[in-house]
Design a protein that fits this description.
By secondary structure, the protein is of the alpha+beta class. It has one domain. It is built from 5 helices and 17 strands. The strands form 3 sheets. Strands 1-2-13-12-14-10-11 form a 7-stranded antiparallel sheet. A 5-stranded antiparallel sheet has the order 3-17-4-15-16, covered by helices on one side. Strands 6-5-9-7-8 form a 5-stranded antiparallel sheet, with no helix packed on it. Strand 7 and strand 8 form a beta hairpin. The longest helix is centred in the N-terminal third of the chain and has 22 residues. It is globular. The protein starts with a helix and ends with a helix.
């Protein structure tokens, strides 16, 4: 690699590192929006070397939060006429601070959810297994957030306040999952955790599943946020992203059935007063 290309590589990594320090410093006390990207350099630059692919550029937008201070809110549009009509309206109506589109759904008039959809401790649709689209289950117990393989859940469904299935897994134990599709580029939506209480919702420019997994495993690609586990959600024309603080809104190109919202977690005192 020439001196100029080494300089480009170090400059990109340093820029991401600085952004990560600004975003994820101070103990991740506050949820925040961030954007990370690479530029469309020619073959031989550091990012292509790191990813072992032909990708020439990408953009990833994140909403980063802590499970100790923020909770999941799985919002369903319903079987008949959509209750909200779009992500931004659904998030505002449910006191969420950020959100993305949710899981896969059937190509019928009701857009029936594929796999588990659970809100306010009640099932909308049941747990499913056997397909990459429901490989993982994201859930909130009321005290913390978990992301696990659907075939080996450690928590009974009745103890989940909010839950949704998606797939495939992109990253497990800090490593890209082998065998991911590597030819079809599309916008992607995902959720990821560092394994120590920090989480992020993300939306990307068109990428293959393999490219996205490799990016998430590349050091400093998301600043100081190191991805331990990441799950792909419904992508392509379903992708949507909303951040209430900055009013950044990436609207989906087609109606979707459900959304993953993030809102402030209620304290024990607030729960008692509500009841």
């Amino acid at each position: 690699m020439t001196r100029r290309l080494r300089h480009l590589r170090l400059s990109i990594l340093l820029a991401c590192h600085i952004a990560g320090v600004l975003l994820f410093g101070a103990g991740n006390a506050e949820a925040q929006y961030a954007e990370f990207h690479s530029r469309g350099y020619t073959s031989g630059n550091g990012w292509i070397d790191l990813l072992n692919g032909q990708m020439k550029g990408y953009r990833i937008e994140l909403y980063v939060f802590r499970a100790a201070t923020h909770e999941l809110c799985i919002v369903d549009e319903g079987d008949a006429q959509p209750t909200y009509g779009n992500l931004a309206a659904a998030m505002r109506a449910n006191s969420c601070v950020a959100g993305v589109n949710g899981g896969y759904f059937a190509a019928n008039q009701a857009r029936t959810p594929i796999g588990l959809l659970r809100h306010a401790s009640r099932n909308v649709t049941p747990l499913a297994t056997g397909s990459f689209t429901v490989a993982g289950t994201l859930y909130d117990t009321g005290g913390s957030i978990f992301l696990e393989r659907s075939v080996s859940l450690r928590t009974p469904l009745q103890h989940m306040k909010e839950a949704i299935q998606g797939g495939p897994f992109l990253v497990e134990n800090f490593r890209a999952v082998p065998g991911l599709e590597k030819t079809r580029k599309a916008m992607r939506t995902f959720i990821a955790t560092n394994g120590t209480g920090s989480w992020c919702l993300g939306i990307t420019s068109p990428l293959t599943l393999r490219e996205l997994a490799n990016i998430l495993c590349t050091p400093d690609s998301l600043g100081t946020f190191r991805v331990r586990t990441a799950l792909n959600m419904d992508g392509g024309s379903s992708c949507a992203f909303w951040d209430g603080a900055t009013n950044i809104y990436r609207q989906s190109f087609k109606p979707v059935r459900n959304y993953i919202g993030i809102r402030l977690r209620k304290t024990a005192g607030q729960e008692r007063r509500r009841h």
